[in-house]
Design a protein that fits this description.
Elements (H helix, E strand, L loop, with lengths): L7 H4 L30 E7 L14 E4 L18 E2 L6 E3 L5 E3 L2 E2 L5 E3 L1 E4 L10 E10 L11 E9 L14 E6 L7 E6 L14 E5 L11 E8 L6 E6 L2 E7 L5 H8 L4 E9 L2 H7 L13 E12 L19 E2 L5 E3 L2 E4 L7 E6 L4 E8 L5 E10 L7 E7 L8 E5 L4 E15 L2 E9 L7 E9 L1
Parallel strand pairs: 3-7
Antiparallel strand pairs: 1-18, 2-8, 4-5, 5-18, 6-7, 8-17, 9-14, 9-18, 10-11, 10-17, 11-12, 12-13, 14-15, 15-16, 19-29, 20-23, 21-22, 22-29, 23-28, 24-27, 24-29, 25-26, 25-28
Length: 461
């Protein structure tokens, strides 16, 4: 989403001196620096070094390429007022053959701007319980300054997983802007977005932000390492922002209301984004309106690597969740899915304890691979659900086989059951199913609000 960071952060830069707690790489040097090995006590969760032939797109296994002027059904101009059209063209997005990714804004003869935006396939980046998560990238911002840079808005950031498929729950699901810059200014901004918009505990749409000049070389003339840490190893928990190993911003759990912190930290995790926008609320607020005729296209943001590390706590989430499998007639715990989008997980008060999927809204889904229905057809679907949805908010819980694009074979409607932990077992008829299938549970509603929690499911004959 990204909105205008606190402008006071530019006028009075905030610098909190401190040493980074993980690996630190040099600011300026060769463009192709390998992903640093994890520092002592840290474990690599995920990384991309952008190695590959020149003129090719980044790995589809790692990245989703966003296109157009917004998510389907989401706010126009990506919710920020930026004007460019994002494409999947290698004119805007390409490996350079030297171990870097280049995101290059272009302008055509008619004055239309194009650029690129990518986001990780994974959306479950979060610390292990009681541990620390670090997200880091080594980046050279577009090397353009002055009037030629007006409207440039490069960014390296992360959004809460429930934003996928909803697009109207920002900023409650959380946003960590690890590196933002506008208009070629020698400054890096770090910003937290949370709570409600406008106003709220994170002062939206500005967010809670701080900025500083890049150490040594300017942000535009050299590579610098931008890092964000989410620390749950101490109480209160803390969020920290670094450039080249120097901490310049922090937000403590104690600064925010408990429900605000819970809403942005208790869901499945975050996905990471890289983009170069043109124009919009932030660059316009400082030097608007942007871009201008004198703005010069063709200056790329160059990304050497992106890496995610964790330290301490429990087990780091696996790169590929294990398959569910097993009998369709057993009690299938909702959180045992092979893959899901848009939902969080929380402890349940339902009989038997364990966890339930939460914050479920229109467009969310969960996949349960390889469920065996046997040779005698299953004709019923049963789910344990709860809802604290507001009056007038309801939706469907649907069953689809083998693809989310296939029509549902059955569904039931759910509205408020008396609370998010007021559980009810709801049956539904389904078309007869035999054999082994991947089962998608999908959620459809005419409203953007959360409308159901899911504890377990099963099938019957």
């Amino acid at each position: 989403m990204r909105s205008r960071p606190l402008i006071a952060a530019l006028l009075t830069p905030l610098l909190v001196a401190g040493a980074v707690t993980g690996a630190v790489t040099g600011a300026v040097g060769s463009a192709d620096a390998s992903v640093p090995p994890p520092a002592s006590g840290w474990t690599t969760v995920w990384s991309d070094d952008f190695d590959g032939p020149s003129g090719t797109l980044p790995s589809g296994a790692n990245w989703i390429i966003d296109t157009g002027h917004g998510y389907p059904g989401g706010p126009g101009n990506w919710g920020t007022g930026e004007i460019q059209n994002y494409t999947n063209s290698t004119n805007n997005l390409a490996l350079d053959g030297a171990g870097n990714l280049r995101i290059t804004p272009r302008r055509d003869a008619a004055g239309n701007w194009t650029s690129a935006r990518i986001e990780t396939q994974r959306s479950n980046f979060k610390p292990p319980a009681g541990g620390v998560l670090a997200i880091e990238s080594r980046i050279q911002m577009p090397n353009v300054t002055g009037t030629a840079a007006l409207g440039y808005w490069p960014a390296f950031w992360a959004l809460g997983a429930p934003y996928r498929g909803n697009y109207w729950n920002w900023p409650g699901i959380g946003e960590f802007d690890i590196m933002e810059n506008v208009n070629g200014i020698n400054s890096v901004w770090g910003v937290l977005h949370c709570g409600v918009n406008p106003g709220g505990p994170c002062n939206e749409t500005s967010g809670l932000g701080a900025s500083r000049a890049c150490p040594g070389s300017t942000c535009q003339s050299g590579f610098h390492t931008y890092r964000f840490e989410w620390d749950t190893s101490s109480s209160p928990n803390q969020l920290r922002w670094y450039v080249d190993g120097q901490q310049f911003h922090a937000v403590s759990q104690g600064q925010l209301p408990a429900d605000t912190w819970t809403n942005m930290t208790s869901h499945a995790g975050y996905f990471i984004l890289l983009n170069v926008a043109i124009g919009g609320a932030f660059p316009d607020a400082l030097n608007g309106p942007t871009p201008r005729p004198e703005t010069v296209p063709g200056h790329p943001m160059v990304v050497d690597y992106v890496a995610v590390w964790s330290r301490g706590g429990g087990t780091t989430p696996p790169t590929t969740p294990p398959p569910s499998g097993g009998s369709a007639y057993s009690t299938i715990q909702a959180e045992s899915n092979s893959q899901q989008s848009g939902m969080g997980v929380e402890a349940t008060t339902d009989t038997g304890g364990g966890q339930n999927l939460m914050q479920i809204s229109n467009g969310d889904w969960a996949l349960y691979r390889g469920l065996d229905f046997g040779s005698t057809a299953a004709t019923q679907f049963v789910a344990r659900v709860a809802s604290g949805a507001a009056g007038g908010v309801s939706g469907l819980v649907e069953v689809r086989l083998d693809s989310r694009s296939n029509p549902p074979i059955g569904s039931f409607a759910i509205a408020n059951t008396g609370g998010w932990q007021s559980w009810r077992t709801v049956p539904a008829n389904i078309s007869g199913v035999t054999g082994v299938h991947d089962v998608y549970i999908t959620f459809t509603s005419g409203q953007p609000a959360d409308y159901v929690n899911l504890n377990w499911l099963t099938f019957g004959r």
